[in-house]
Each structure stands twice: as C-alpha cells, then as structure tokens.
Design goal:
There is one protein chain. The protein has 336 residues and is an alpha/beta fold. The protein starts with a strand and ends in a 10-residue tail after the last helix. The model has no long low-confidence stretch (mean pLDDT 87).
Length: 336
C-alpha cells in the first residue's frame, strides 16, 4: 500500500502501482496498473512509449514495478467488540428479515453469524448493520458496516439519503458523500490506520463444523440462504474480489469441504476463473449457473425468495436440477 498512488482513471487512492526504472524513478504518472478489478486500468511501458514516440527513454526491457514492501504482522480486533447486541430491534436489516422470515429465524442467523448493529448510519428510523469477519480460529479480522432499507432489504447506495453519526458534533448529520453506505471500521476502532488487517469470509468461523459450503457475494444473501437452505453452510466474499478470497491464507479453511460457488448474474466467467485457482490448490469446488440467465445483480438469494413468494412452487424439473447442483438429490424422494 505504501507504494501505491491515486488511479488516473477511477480516482481511487492507494490503488495504482507505477512502473519504475532500476533507479525506482516512475516512467510517467499514467504508466501503471490499478488494483481494482472494476476499474481495470493498465498502461504498460510498451504501450506508453507507443503513445509517446518522442520520448527518448525507449529501452524499457529492464523496467519493472517496485518490489512489495515487507508486510507488517497481521492485526486482529479485540473479541470484546462481539458483545450481545442490545439494539437489534433497531437494525434495519434485522427489521426486514424479521418481517420476511419471523423474529425466531432472523434472531437465529444473526446470532450464528454474530451480526451486530451500528449507529454509524441512520435511515428510515433504523440503524446500520455490522458484519463481522471471524476466521476459522475465532479471531476477529474486520468489521464491515452497511446501511439497509428496512422495507426492501436493499443496501443503501450513494444516491440514497441517510444520516451519519458525527463524533465531533455528537449528533447525526446528512451524509452527502458520493459513495455507497459501506464502511470498514477496523482501523478506526483500533485507532491505528497503519494496522495490517487480513480480511476473511463472512461466516468463516462456521466452516469448520460443516461438510458442504455455499459461497455467495453478499453478506445479506448468506443470511437469507442459511434460512432457506440450512443444510448448507453459507459464507460471503463481500464482493467479486472482496476479502481476496483466492489467496491461500483466506481459502485454506475450505480444504476438505465440498464447495459450490453461486456467482451473481453476469459474473459467471469471472468466478469460473477463480474456481480454477481454488481447484488447483486442492479445493473440491464447482460453480453454479442458476443465476446466469437472470437480470443483472440477481443472486441465489433472489432466486430462493422468488420461489418462496410464488403461489406456484418450483417445477419438478427445477427441483431436480437444483438438488443435483447442491448435492442433495439422494436425500429427496420424488412422487410423480
């Protein structure tokens, strides 16, 4: 992170790595690579000199990106942050799930995943949700805070109105920043912005006791799927690249488990690439295509909720296909 700069395309700070020469001098502020997959900006020295033929520094065969700075020891958050949630009734995501599934089921999954409540954002007379990232050894790696609409269960984006708690003013103020309502609170809570926090799957602490694991992108979807398909342990990456889940220190707890990836609609190709990485490292893994023909941003939780809401249930063909996909076909008896 210490060698990264602001990306000239997406504008994100600490994401852009410059190409440098052997004296560690950058070729140009535009010549480098963005770490954000959604941006994808990458201008190599070869491409740069083709665009700037008048530049006399044409010998770039030995040019390289700077070596990585030696990583500091991994830091963890104190487990005391995972206290009993006294404000769950005000949690907007809990309000949605209690309405959808009943308070008993909503409480069960919130307890299992140690989901909490944060005053960081306030909207629709409710508070934000804390998704803890707890590793397979029970260590608290990160706390991700997100704001939700209690009526729809959708997360609040940059165009949605919400108030943010101000420690300085000791009151809520309008959040007018042009960004989605997502906040990683770990470094702030540690009061150490140089802390080396290693993220992990949301729900990673549940993997050890399971034999079959379903991986989705959204934390909310993991909660919903754990209610509607409890025979599988559901975990979430928190994004396409999310917790850097193709790195061995993140996916190692999946060894010995039967794993199925459930990419959002339109993300099948990207997740198949990640499957190759995990499979080459010994993970028993397959990719579901159940969402591929659905509208953008749909995921397996949307599919399960749709089938739940339909007066007419799934067809027998759909049931058989889904049962085969998740590996439970031998447990189902069909009376046709």
């Amino acid at each position: 992170m210490n060698t990264r700069h602001t990306c000239p395309q997406c504008g994100h700070k600490k994401e852009f790595t410059l190409y440098v020469d052997e004296r560690n001098n950058p070729i140009d502020e535009s010549c480098g690579r963005c770490n954000r997959e959604r941006c994808g900006y990458h201008l190599t020295p070869s491409e740069y000199f083709k665009e700037h033929p008048t530049n006399d520094r044409t010998d770039f065969a030995t040019w390289k990106q700077p070596e990585s700075v030696k990583a500091a020891p991994v830091c963890y958050l104190p487990s005391t942050l995972l206290v009993a949630d006294a404000h769950r009734a005000e949690n907007n995501l809990f309000r949605f799930m209690a309405k959808e599934f009943g308070e008993v089921e909503a409480n069960r999954v919130f307890d299992a995943y140690r989901v909490g409540t944060s005053r960081h954002w306030k909207n629709n007379d409710g508070l934000a949700t804390i998704f803890p990232q707890i590793d397979d050894k029970g260590r608290l790696c990160q706390l991700k805070v997100m704001a939700y609409n209690p009526a729809t269960g959708k997360r609040m984006k940059k165009q949605d109105q919400a108030e943010m708690w101000s420690d300085r003013a000791k009151k809520y103020v309008p959040d007018t920043r042009p960004m989605d309502k997502i906040w990683f609170a770990g470094k702030t809570l540690l009061r150490n912005y140089d802390a080396n926090l290693q993220q992990t799957f949301f729900g990673c602490h549940l993997i050890k006791a399971s034999s079959r694991v379903g991986i989705v992108e959204s934390e909310k979807s993991a909660l919903i799927c754990s209610i509607l398909m409890p025979e599988i342990t559901w975990i979430a990456t928190g994004g396409c690249n999310g917790c850097r889940w193709t790195e061995i220190n993140v996916f190692k707890p999946l060894l010995g488990k039967k794993v199925v990836l459930y990419p959002d609609a339109g993300m099948l190709a990207k997740w198949e690439e990640k499957t190759v990485i995990l499979r080459s490292n010994g993970i028993d893994i397959t990719v579901s295509q159940v969402c591929e023909s659905l509208p953008d941003n749909w995921d397996i939780a949307d599919v399960l909720l749709r089938e739940r809401h339909m007066q007419k249930g799934m067809t027998i063909g759909e049931i058989i296909a889904l049962a085969n996909e998740i590996g439970v076909s031998s447990q189902i008896t069909y009376n046709i």
